[in-house]
Amino acid sequence: MQEQRFTKRDWALFRSKIGSWQEVYMGRLCDEYIELLSGDGDPSEKFWQLDKRIRSDKRNPGVQLEMTRTNFIYNIIALINNDVISIEDLEDFSDELKGTVNAFLERQNWNYSDED
If you average pLDDT over residues 11-16, what whole number do you get? Predict the structure, then answer.
């Protein structure tokens, strides 16, 4: 298991920011839903497309997360990987946390390029 590479301040900062990050992300989703509903096509087709999108989007970390300290780093990685936040959103966090996140992201990129 990954050793804790963040501070109590990081955890408190995350808890204070996650709500606004998710609100911004869900705002983007709503804009996409409006676009989908405003487009051409039959109402029933748009309804079922929207239903499918919402069911999928509900599982996105930009909508809901399991808020535990154990999942903290994994949640940040998932938020970045799902374009909810960017690495720049972590500027107020500790160097330890940023280093851990960067190490995870670099390893992911290395693993992805290894699959080619």
Answer: 97
Q: Name the amino acid, one letter, at 38.
A: S
Beta strands in 6-108 (DSSP E): none
65 or 1, greater pLDDT:
65
pLDDT (mean) for 77-89: 96
CA 6 – CA 13 distance, rounded (Å): 11
Longest dimension (CA), the chain: 52
Three-class DSSP labels, 35-90: HHHHCCCCHHHHHHHHHHHHHHHCCCCCCCCCCCCCCHHHHHHHHHHCCCCCHHHH
Looking at residue 3, what is its pLDDT? Answer: 53
Cα dihedral 55, 57, 63, 65 sign: positive
Q: Which of 68, 80, 83, 84 is nearest to 11 (CA)?
A: 68
Which segments within the chain are labelled E, that is strand?
A: none
Other residues' Cβ atoms within 10 Å of the Cβ of residue 76: 28
